[in-house]
Structure prediction request, 141 residues.
Amino acid sequence: MDKVYVVTEGDYSDYHIVAVFTTEEVAEEYAKKRNEKNGYESARVEDYEVNESSATMPHWFVRMFRDGTVERVQSEGDDLPTPADSWVQQMNMPVKDMVMETPERVAVLAVRCCANDEQHAVKIANEIRVQRIALNQFSTE
Prediction:
């Protein structure tokens, strides 16, 4: 199995990828230099096997209200909206989202993504929901 070596920093919501390398030695050296420059041990190296792509992961459709309530979760085999649906035509995997209104005129977040399972798909949708709220892109009206 091939591996990639990912230099990351931060924790929880601040966790992020800084760089990705194909060799561990180069990744370790990069993290070391970054830590010396920062003056503290913030960069670390994580390794991941490269064996899965979004093409082999199931596709999911999640609808979530502003308060985090999940209205609907569907997997690829559950009559997922098709590319013929107008908004899905604009959605390129692995993750696309949009805020829309239900027939009751309630704002709902619609997310189409690749995920390992239902729980993972809901987690992705929730992270997008939080970002949308923080950017004032998910109105309460």
Remarks:
- Confidence is low (pLDDT under 50) at residues 78-94.
- Residues 118-134 form the longest helix (17 residues).
- The helical segments are 24-38, 86-89, 118-134.
